[in-house]
Amino acid sequence: MSRQEILEKLRSLMARTGPGKTDWAKVSEADAIAALGIDSLAMLDFLYDIQQEFGIELDPRDLVSVTTVGQMVSFIGERKGA
Amino acid sequence: MKRVQHLLEYAVVRVLLFLVDLLPLRACVALAHGIGDLFYLLHRPRRRTAMENLLAAGEARDERDARRLTRAVFHQFSHLVVTSVKSDSWFQKYPPESCVTWKLPPELAAILDDPKQGLILACGHLGSWEIGAQLLSHRKPVVGITRRMNNPYVDRLMVSRKPRGRFELTPKRDANLLRLAGALKDGKVLAIMIDQNAKDRGMLVDFFGRPASSHTAIALLHLLTKTPLCFGACIEVAPMRFEFRASGPFRFAPTGDKAADVRKILEHLNRELENAVRLTPDQYMWGHRRWRLTPKQLAANAP
To answer: Which of B192, B282, B271 is nearest to B235 (CA)?
Structure first.
């Protein structure tokens, strides 16, 4: 799965979990997750969806240092490749 | 004006803390009783809320019974505050193990005594929750989330009085749930109050037969980390004598239907709390607005 495909899927998942006012189609890898209005509670919601969508096991503890969308894309990419 | 009010409240709290430190336990219990009566008389809205909640939950037979129970609840709450303050010096004099009886299923006791195993503890505003966390921390380190008080002077004072050691408290506004999940990896107990009104961010789950907005974080943390879940409450059976009653461990597997998974866990935990409250209704904080719905929730629930 390419980075672009992961990003596309993340955008649609974030649109489901995140606040309504954000234009999710414009979200780029450089965007900070917190700046998109996704706090740690929304992040847990989001992680459940990522787990189901990508078929990977995620431990929230491993994601403390993930702060941008790009880092999340890399993280999922690594897990999918692993 | 607000600053003057805060400073006045701070002065009253300082005097009370001085008295609690100075007086023997029996006198502190009497003092708490008196403060409870005073609040019962003066705090009409809270008294009303408690009575309404007791009647709606079916825990009071009629208005008279609700009044009697509400008064007991006010006594209990001020007793809880006074004993929580007193507990630090008390446990220095009397070993905590001598003040508590553990009522735990064997599998849960084994988890508590395994230093590598994390545990998510669901608790509520029942019994002596602060002392419970303190007692539990002697078996396993505990991490909890706390709300800051409106009065910053009193808040700083009370934080400085909270017991340290193996019981860490994280202010709610600084609580990063991902970071808190790290505590589970370190073999700690993550204690979460399940009966706080989550307003629009929560899921409506029945509690005593009425929908109440419940935070979903506890369920999501369990589903994601697969850390065992339990329910617990620390009940005071005599002054400074406690029974820590817990059930579990509970384990739920994610099915792919997030809303259904979260609901199943929250319903289970709310039922556990409800059953525990029924055993000692006078030790539950009935005065909080557990069932108050937001306009958005009311509209969604309208027939």
So the answer is: B282
Is residue A40 a part of any domain in this protein? yes
Closest CA to B258 of A49, A53, A16: A49
Task: Give the strand pairing for B203-207 and B210-214.
Answer: antiparallel
Collect all residues of chain B within an 8 Å Cβ-Cβ radius of residue A61: 178, 181-182, 184-185, 225
CATH of the domain at A41: 1.10.1200
pTM over 0.80: yes
Continuous segment of H or E residues that includes residue B103: strand B100-103
3-state secondary structure of B166: coil
R_g of chain A computed on alpha carbons: 11
Rounded to whole angstroms, what are the CA distances from B194 to B216, B217, B266?
A: 9, 9, 8
**Distance between CA atoms of residues A53 and A56, nearest Å:** 8
Percent helix, strand, coil in chain B, to 5, is: 55, 20, 25
Instruction: Please enumerate in sequence order all residues whose Cβ is within 8 A of that of B162, keeping only pairs 6 or more positions apart, or say none.
Output: B130, B169
The residue range of the domain holding A59 is: 3-18+32-80
Number of other CB atoms surrounding residue B184 within 10 Å: 24
**Total domains in the fold of chain A:** 1
Q: Is the CB of A41 less than 8 angstroms away from the CB of B201?
A: yes
Which chain A positions have a beta carbon within 8 Å of B188's beta carbon? none
d(CA B152, CA A77): 46
Give the integer Cα–Cα distance in Å for B238 and B255: 44
The per-residue pLDDT for range B71-117, each reduced to its tens digit, is 999 999 999 989 988 888 898 899 999 999 999 999 999 999 999 99
Instruction: Say how far apart CA B73 and CA B67 lie, in whole Å.
Output: 10
The minimum CA-CA distance between A17 and chain B, rounded to whole Å, is: 11
Residue A24, in any domain of the structure: no
B24-50: pLDDT as tens digits: 999 999 999 999 999 999 999 999 999
What is the ipTM for the molecules in this complex?
0.85
**CA–CA gap between residue B146 and residue B156 (Å, rounded):** 13
Interchain CB contact of B177 with A (< 8 Å): yes
